[in-house]
Amino acid sequence: MTTKQRVLAFLEKNKGTAISGQELADTLKISRTSIWKAINLLKEEGYAIEAITNKGYCLSASSDLLSAEAIRPFLLPELKERPFHIFKTTESTNNEAKKIIVEQANTEAIVLTEEQTKGKGRLGRFFYSPPKTGIYMSLILKPQMTTMDATLITTAAAVAVCLAIEKVTKKKPKIKWVNDIYLDGYKISGVLTEAVTNFENGTIETIILGIGLNFRMPLEGFPAELQSIAGSLLSTENPEITRNELIAEITNQFHHIYQQIETREYLEAYKERCFVFGKKIDFRQGKQEFEAIPIDIDQQGGLIVKMENGEQRTLSYGEITI
Ligand code: BTN
Q: Which residues form the BPL/LPL catalytic domain (predicted)?
């Protein structure tokens, strides 16, 4: 850890409280000049650190710049060593993840950014990713499974996002099959899973699990075309929770559910939150459009629907409209 990272970790731990330069120097066993330099570097990066006369340095309680130092304290012990790659801006964290796995083939890692300029949604869509108000994260995972099971990762991620939100905010988000998270009728989060397969033996070498979440309402609001669909988790300017905390909780919840992929235990939690059952839906297969009523989720995360003629079908990918 660099001096700057150590100072940041200490300030994050004591957010909202003034710490004297002397206390920082004594605790971290570094000179006051080094502390001063680190504080200046952090301020240049945008950290709201106030120097209070006779009291010391105080990182604003509402500070929420993404950093490994702010996320790690909330992570499960077994995840604390996981490497982070954090960007101010990038086209897409899923694309960054693909570059990272070329260089570091065997590491599971967490990729984050404050903003995405070409955020990718499912079915070739764009995921609106303005600076600082959203969570744009990609988990690099190294599973041992076939392509079939990769779809389960997506449903597992939807459950993880819901459980994390429930834990840190007490709100009750719902899932629209397959992986859209809704709150009060608006979509607040989506998941885009990409798999890197070994062509020789058909196994998945890496899964890139991309999660996008509208944490706060963007200052300029959502673009016109999203206004009737998109919502955000929190509407207040200074929320009690931070993106850093929620990122850690999503990572923790996913880690826990990931252990249940084989047994499918988590599918119960998925079904409990899925709000499409019993509702009339439309979906496309090829060029044809169909109407049906969803009745269940199968063991692969597919949606079992009842067609108008009473026939049952299972949808394994795509999108439904309610
Ligand atoms: C969807 O709702 O269609 C899926 C949206 C997934 C967005 C996330 S944001 C982080 C990761 N990087 C991307 O480019 N996309 C995913």
A: 69-262
Q: Tell whether the model's pLDDT for residue 268 goes beyond 80.
A: yes
In this model, does residue 148 exceed pLDDT 70? no
Pocket of ligand 1 (CB under 6 A): 92-94, 116, 119-122, 125, 127, 136-138, 180, 190-192, 210-212
Q: Could you tell me if 298 and 271 are in contact, meaning their C-beta atoms sit under 8 angstroms apart?
A: no
> Ligand 1 centre from 1 Cα, in Å?
30
Class of CATH domain 281-321: mainly beta
Q: Is residue 5 part of an annotated ligand binding site?
A: no
Determine whether the annotation assigns residue 63 to a binding site: no
Atom of ligand 1 nearest to the CA of 94: 12
User: What length is written for the chain?
Assistant: 322
**DSSP-assigned beta bridge partners for residue 288:** 285
Place of tokens 């009737």: 228
Q: What confidence tens digit (pLDDT) does each residue in 73-114 have? A: 999 999 999 999 999 999 999 999 999 998 887 789 999 999
- Distance in angstroms between the alpha carbons of the first and the last residue of the chain: 50
CA distance 165 to 180: 14
189 Cα nearest atom in ligand 1? 2
Q: What is the pTM of this model?
A: 0.94
Q: What is the ipTM, given to two decimal places?
A: 0.99
User: Could you tell me the distance, in angstroms and rounded to a whole number, from the CA of residue 149 to the centre of ligand 1?
Assistant: 20
Q: Where are the domains of the chain?
A: 3-59, 68-273, 281-321
CATH number of the domain located at residue range(s) 68-273 in this protein = 3.30.930.10
CA of 213 to the centre of ligand 1 (A): 8
**DSSP letter for each residue of 226-273:** GTTTB--SB-SSS-SS-HHHHHHHHHHHHHHHHTTTTTTTTHHHHHHH
Mutation to probe ligand 1, out of 211, 213, 317 (largest number of atoms < 8 A from CB): 211
CA dihedral 177, 133, 94, 89 (to 10 degrees): 160
CATH of the domain spanning 3-59? 1.10.10.10
